[in-house]
Amino acid sequence: LVAGVGPGDVLFFHFSGHGAQKEDPHGYEEDGMNETILPMDFERAGQITDDQIGDFIVKGLPEGVSLTAVMDCCHSGTGLDLPYKWTGRGWHEETNPYFSLGDVQMFSGCEDDDTSSDASTAYGAAGGAMTTAFADVLRAHPCPSYFELLDLMHRNLRHRGFSQRPQLSSTQRFDFDRPFLLDDILPNSNPQVGRVVRRKFPPQPRAMRGPLADMLGIGLAVAGGMVLGDMMGGLLGGGLFGGGDDWGL
């Protein structure tokens, strides 16, 4: 995904599946736990942590590259460990942030201590509830602001009976009336690059029950999702780039 990228490149990463947590060996996370995703071979190959995903697709991006990530899995609130999280009233900077040069935003299915639900699309296909809401909103409103996009996703999920609240995190602070366009690339505004360590946190694992917990064998909270791909195809083809139709709200 990121090999050979340069200024002006636009990237998109999507995961809808199983999510979990494991202890953060460095103590950087505010709950002491790394967020993880579970590939199909996780019982043999292990979980993939947010630290590893960030190393692969975020930290090495040069300035002028945009990455939009959608992570629809349990405990995904800080699933890329981006330094800024939107709170509804402004940007919250993580206690031990890692600052990087690229323009990266991540929409996550829920908070770190919450779970993401499965759902069905209008065509009967299985998929994550947040991904379905994301796709439904952008089909109806191809160029919302970030504020409008999150608000409409929350409304969509509540209307369908889901309590989870999607989260937004970013490598860069920006005004929330910014339009959601995949090729709208912000320059780096971080005064430094790399990790700032202010405080270490002990792990706070959350117990759970069920078949997946038995497979993990570590008593951490995990819940399911369905791998989803084709839902996003039509969205990336039109309306989300600056050169496309700007229909707004």
Number of strands: 13
Round the mean pLDDT to the nearest integer and report it.
81
Distance between the termini: 32 Å
Describe the sheet with the most strands: 6 strands, mixed
Helix content bin: 10-25%
Strand order, sheet with most strands: 1-5-9-12-6-7
Please mark out the parts with pLDDT under 50 across 5 or more consecutive residues, or reply none. 114-126, 219-234, 243-249
Could you explain the architecture of this structure?
The chain is α+β, with helices and mostly antiparallel strands and 249 residues long. Helix content is 20%, strand content 21%. The chain contains six helices and 13 strands. It has helices at residues 42-45, 50-57, 129-140, 146-159, 211-216, 233-237, and strands at 10-16, 19-23, 33-37, 48-49, 66-72, 84-86, 91-93, 98-99, 103-108, 118-120, 126-128, 167-170, 194-195. A six-stranded mixed β-sheet has the order 1-5-9-12-6-7, with helices on one face. Strands 2-3-4 form a three-stranded antiparallel β-sheet. The protein has a two-stranded antiparallel sheet with strand order 8-13. Strand 10 and strand 11 (126-128) form a beta hairpin.
